[in-house]
Amino acid sequence: AKSGHYLVSSAENSTRDQLAKVFVHLASRHRDLRLTEDNVYRLSDYTFHVAGMTPSQLLDIRTEVEDMGFAFTWSTIHAHIMPRGQEKGSALCWLLRQMEIPVFPAHTTLTVGDSPNDATLFDESRFPCTAGVANIEKYRNVMDSFPRFISRYAEGDGFVDIAQLLLRLKGLMP
């Protein structure tokens, strides 16, 4: 089957069809939902813009999606409808195993994030070294796991702050 410009298996196409049905249902109840421009190229999730939406609205949508048997999360720009079990923490553990880096817990890995879709990267049982940029503070009450260190700066400046701190700790920067 063909989806966008990518060839996908029928199983992937079936998942996308199911995710599309969830989105159509949500859009009938939340008229302001707008698909992301790159949604057509995605294989494993369905995305819409979060601009103008409150955390409360997103939490309500998360409940609806979970009640339909799927997972839901959001970042600073997009909301993601996806199959259960699909999350960044598991993906990072898989990647670390592929690179033969000790995984449980991943003491040699620093995870960095900025929004609820990064929450599984802050699970201390898997990733004890965690950091977030300042704008993550607004999501503190909606995330199951939260970073141990928070930069005083938001977004890109926060990431630079965290990277510079790491380099100073490693003696690679004054």
In words, what does this structure look like?
This protein is of the alpha/beta class. 34% of the residues lie in helices and 16% in strands. The protein has a 3-stranded antiparallel beta sheet with strand order 3-5-4, covered by helices on one side. Strands 6-7-8 form a 3-stranded parallel beta sheet, with helices on one face. 25% of the residues are buried. The N terminus is likely disordered.
How many strand units?
Answer: 8
How many helical elements? Answer: 4
Radius of gyration, whole Å: 18 Å
Terminal CA distance:
54 Å
Mean pLDDT, all residues: 90
Query: Which outline best applies?
Result: globular
Helical amount among residues, as a percent range?
Answer: 25-40%
Structural class: alpha/beta
Q: Which range does the strand content fall in?
A: 15-25%
Q: Order of strands side by side in the largest beta sheet? A: 3-5-4
The major beta sheet can be summarized as:
3 strands, antiparallel
In short:
With 174 residues, the protein is of the alpha/beta class. Helices cover 34% and strands 16% of the residues.
Record the SSE blueprint.
Blueprint: E1 2-3, E2 6-7, H1 10-29, E3 46-49, H2 55-67, E4 71-74, E5 78-82, H3 88-98, E6 110-113, E7 129-132, E8 149-150, H4 155-169
Parallel strand pairs: 6-7, 7-8
Antiparallel strand pairs: 1-2, 3-5, 4-5
Which tags fit this structure?
174 residues, 4 helices, alpha/beta, 3-stranded antiparallel sheet
